[in-house]
């Protein structure tokens, strides 16, 4: 898919002008900007988004490392209550039993603006050609770690298998731990954006998002959603309602 379909230069320039001088433009007039929800700090994210899209090559690869560079990797949840709540889906005994059995009942649905809506098991995802990448995870909290991730490139699932429709623009991820977040098509089709089921040569652990998590190497760590269960392709941004990260002050675009 050409980058022109993903994000036109004209639209980026228009968005840049809006970001610089039109912070209070109505949504219909700033369609190419990330959502800000009226927060002044978040409005600054528009400039970051536009600058990255205008100045950086869209499909440039994040730096990759060797096996000797792998470091210890902290387990951080957006909401720490999930670590101590035994009733939470990913902390339940059933989830741990499923994990021990290799998640035989796992299903990932892909729907929305795709020609062929799909449901994938974990085995289905592993039948795609696998990509392994050792990359730096940069957390918004100030720490960083290097880990090895193995999974299927999201562009293989969306573009080659499910088939994106012409109006596709955003990809929204719904997760078992009740979080919802999205990325634009440029990042979704980036060659290092993968649905990871392996980490550091083994299976993905429950704390790190088993059985399947997203890896978006071009953005800060919280955009790499854990426990992905559903992917929806849309033409308009879905903010996720009360489950969406941006409702709690997180930037929608966290490019690095």
Automatic annotation (TrEMBL):
The keyword Oxidoreductase is annotated on this UniProt entry: yes
Q: Does the keyword Lipid biosynthesis apply?
A: no
Q: Which InterPro entries match?
A: OxRdtase_Mopterin-bd_dom (IPR000572), OxRdtase_Mopterin-bd_sf (IPR036374), TAT_signal (IPR006311)
Q: Which UniProt keywords apply?
A: Oxidoreductase
Which SUPFAM superfamilies does this one have? Oxidoreductase molybdopterin-binding domain
Top-level EC class as recorded in UniProt: oxidoreductase
Q: Which Gene3D superfamilies match?
A: Oxidoreductase, molybdopterin-binding domain
Which residues are in the Oxidoreductase molybdopterin-binding domain?
104-237
PROSITE patterns per record: TAT
Which Enzyme Commission numbers does its entry carry?
A: 1.8.-.-
Molecular-function annotations in GO: oxidoreductase activity
- State what protein this is by name: Sulfoxide reductase catalytic subunit YedY
